Amino acid sequence: MCIIRLTDDQPDLSIVIPVYNEEESLPELIRRTELACRGLSVKAEVILVDDGSSDHSMEIIHDAVQRFPQLFVGVVLSTNFGQHAAVMAGFQQSRGKFVITMDADLQNPPEEIPRVLDMLLQGYDVVGTIRQRRQDSTFRLWGSHLVNLMVRQLCHGRTMTDYGCMLRGYSRKVVDAVLQCGENGKFIPILAMSYARRTVEITVSHAERMAGKSKYSCLKLISLLFDLLTGTSNFPLRLMTFSGFFIALFGVLFGLVVFVISQIDKSWGAEGVFALFAIAFVLMGCQFIGLGLLGEYVGKIHHNTRQRPQFFVEQVIVGQPQAAAEETPEQKLAG
Ligand code: UDP
Ligand code: MG
User: Fold this and answer.
1) Is 105 touching ligand 1 by the criterion CB < 6 Å?
2) Residues 6+ apart with CB under 8 A from 3
3) pLDDT digit string (tens) for 154-190?
4) How far is the CA of 213 from the centre of ligand 2 (A)?
5) What residues of the chain score a pLDDT lower than 70?
6) Does the pTM exceed 0.90?
7) Is 51 in the pocket of ligand 1 (CB under 6 A)?
8) Distances (CA, A) of 108 to 230, 270, 334
9) Distance (Å, rounded) from C-alpha 19 to C-alpha 83?
């Protein structure tokens, strides 16, 4: 990883933008982001993370840092690690008390940055956003609804309405907590929500991709969905155990029915084939239960290897020493 930073001033706000082959939209992104940051009440830095682009994105980032050394910072990754890894690399380099993430394709208008910052300044740890009049294909819209629904069902605690919108704000405390999670393939908003005390959501405008194509093909989206499913919950493993119980129960009931009917009518039962089916169902159910239990152990190993910190202490509140607290007003005055 190479970092292009031409200033050492400490910023209050870091804006992290992952960039992967966005040469067409980058100049406009840089222009509009610079303009948006000029009007901010706090000092900002914009971290452009080049995620192994093969076009001219890196040169454009270099140029932006040269032109606005007080504002832009370039982080160049050695190859394409994916959007979430790129954001994590940006988090690692960020120095602001607040961090805002957004996309490089201008689907998140930079003009919305002040509104997100406003909420962070009010003390919220995570500022989620909900895209108004989303400018995406019907396939993506339905996919997004499915993912949002799934994550909300699977995650315990606080959840977000729109997990797909990258324009989000985080406090330094939350960013540090996410950085301490040892797992790969992190889904940042889920982690951030689990470590946040105060969260809020605001609606933001959404634009069409300015140029180029989405970096997520159908196949990539499906693998992301599986990643998300297995990364957030053990529910699919439990589902296997539950279905095993149901199949085995069905086998037992079916066996009972076959037994009762064959006692009434000896010619019924297809010469024991039905009874064989009942036994097969029970065995199949047992196999599923066994697999599910094995999965529970694998799930536990998976959970432990992620090395997520179990808690974060925000502050420790200690009282005054007893003697000082019991001082009379006269003693205080004399002191
Ligand atoms: N991106 C990235 N690495 C990748 C894929 C995407 O850094 O491997 C960046 C991309 O340049 C953009 C953001 O992630 O800034 C979102 O990508 P895209 O707009 O293609 O996603 P979509 O809006 O279609 O979900
Ligand atoms: Mg996009």
Assistant:
1) yes
2) 73, 74, 75, 76, 93
3) 887 888 999 989 999 999 999 999 999 877 767 899 9
4) 8
5) 6-7, 185, 322-335
6) no
7) yes
8) 28, 66, 62
9) 8
